[in-house]
Design a protein that fits this description.
Blueprint: H1 5-12, H2 19-26, H3 31-56, H4 59-66, E1 72-78, E2 87-93, H5 111-124, E3 127-133, H6 135-141, H7 143-156, E4 164-168, E5 178-181, H8 184-187, H9 189-212, H10 218-221, H11 227-236, H12 247-250
Parallel strand pairs: 1-4, 4-5
Antiparallel strand pairs: 1-2, 2-3
Helix pairs in contact: 1-3, 5-9, 6-7
Amino acid sequence: MKQSIHQIRQLLEQPEVEQEQLDKLAGDERKGVQTLLKQYRKRQEERHQLLAMHDQMNEYERQLRSQGYHALAGIDEVGRGPLAGPVVAAAVILPPDFRLLGLTDSKKLTKQKREAFSEIIKREAVAYSIEMVHADEIDRINIYQATKMAMKAAISTLHKEPDYLLLDAMSLQLDIPQTSLIKGDEKSITIAASSVIAKVARDTYMAELETKYPGYGFSRHAGYGTKEHLAAIDRLGVTPEHRRSFKPVQERA
């Protein structure tokens, strides 16, 4: 007796199906069965691609662990370019068996995916820390130095001391061995994790500013120099969250 379409759908919703069962379904001439089988194969191909990406993004971590390092901290920042709000850095130490398929550069993820991933990362991390440097300090020391300050603060407030740092296109004067990777959030799972939690933390902060400073649209543009934002500054003026050393704000202050 043939399985019903409903039974086959339930079978193919499983992560893995035995090849013998797939071969049997391949001979089933019902159109609905072939559609379900095609969808299953597509999901499997996507999963294999994500597994391959995850494996590739773990290469630096594997090499470092083989050299005797165990507390590998990934560090990344968000918010260098905006006209308002803080620059935010995060440091994350992940367990060796951490797996989160699809984790990559936070800018490549949807808002919903970032938020879901951020919760998983924070829950499963060995340690994580998020630090912010605000507009007044950015104006005082410049954005490059403020970025370094935020990164150092994130490292120093980890509750587990790292023995190696993986950084996204940055080097820090610290007595900890480190590697700086161009586009590190696409090459290292640990840097990608820090990228995601930093991005979510900053977006949350900027959304909260919407209540404090209504009319600027902070929850939409996150402080970047959009036409909407520049028009709001012209209309409402400069807030304490604006970076007065940045030219578009300076011209309107």
